[in-house]
Amino acid sequence: MPEKRIAPLISSLEDFECQLPGYLNEKTTLALLLDYDGTLAAIADNPKNTFMNVDMEKLLNRLAVHPKIFLCIISGRGLRDVQSRVGIKGITYAGNHGLEIESGNGTRHDYALPAELQNHFAPMVKELIDNVQKNGAWIEDKKVTLTYHYRDVPADISEEQKKLAVRIIESHGFRTSQAHEAIEAKPPVNWNKGEAALLILKDRFGDNWADQIKVIFAGDDNTDEDAMRLLQASSKSFRISVDPEIQTYADFRLAQQDVVEDLLKWIRNTYTD
């Protein structure tokens, strides 16, 4: 069974080359699965202000068109939102933690939620807006999931307001999980970024994908741990975190978000045009 542990640190391009010699091979297809917020783009005070920097954007676009690289973005954002942020056509996107998946050719896979849950979503959003969208907090409605952002709530009332938000979400039958100064609300189904990653890899490369390709996954959030757990031993995964004591299913810890740029450079250096 996969277990969490303190992962070895990578903090530079040279570290990738030293700690993963020979993992990549330009003759072997690479499936590159990446989170967006906190991974490709630095966390901002508001998700609307989160963008990739120019260098990251250039690297990602270059890798996206390489014939030996299959690129997929797996995000907690809504599908159309993350597609518009990344802006690369012809690649696979998974939004809402994998509940919505669209391949490069437009084929869709949407997780079928029970009608009762769907009927609870709008009332849950309204109750949250009426009760806890205040003091700087706001609700990010992603139609299938939502995020309660409390980054700007004064410290002396933040905990109480957050607990109320959690109670409201759970009273409507949705699960809560901690994110960066936010609470994620997701339907209580056995589906997450890990399940989505496995489905995407099987659909693209077949049931024996682990014997055919190399896989890299990178993410910065607790929701990304689902993918790191299910891909453990059949990929190389990277958790972005400044915490040296963080327990993770990932193979390596990246010291900060901008090291992801070095990760993409390491891949680019192997998969030369």
From TrEMBL:
<dbReference type="Pfam" id="PF02358">
    <property type="entry name" value="Trehalose_PPase"/>
</dbReference>
<comment type="similarity">
    <text>Belongs to the trehalose phosphatase family.</text>
</comment>
<dbReference type="GO" id="GO:0005992">
    <property type="term" value="P:trehalose biosynthetic process"/>
</dbReference>
<dbReference type="InterPro" id="IPR003337">
    <property type="entry name" value="Trehalose_PPase"/>
</dbReference>
<keyword id="KW-0378">Hydrolase</keyword>
<dbReference type="InterPro" id="IPR036412">
    <property type="entry name" value="HAD-like_sf"/>
</dbReference>
<dbReference type="InterPro" id="IPR044651">
    <property type="entry name" value="OTSB-like"/>
</dbReference>
<comment type="pathway">
    <text>Glycan biosynthesis; trehalose biosynthesis.</text>
</comment>
<comment type="function">
    <text>Removes the phosphate from trehalose 6-phosphate to produce free trehalose.</text>
</comment>
<dbReference type="InterPro" id="IPR006379">
    <property type="entry name" value="HAD-SF_hydro_IIB"/>
</dbReference>
<dbReference type="InterPro" id="IPR023214">
    <property type="entry name" value="HAD_sf"/>
</dbReference>
<protein>
    <recommendedName>
        <fullName>Trehalose 6-phosphate phosphatase</fullName>
        <ecNumber>3.1.3.12</ecNumber>
    </recommendedName>
</protein>
<dbReference type="GO" id="GO:0004805">
    <property type="term" value="F:trehalose-phosphatase activity"/>
</dbReference>
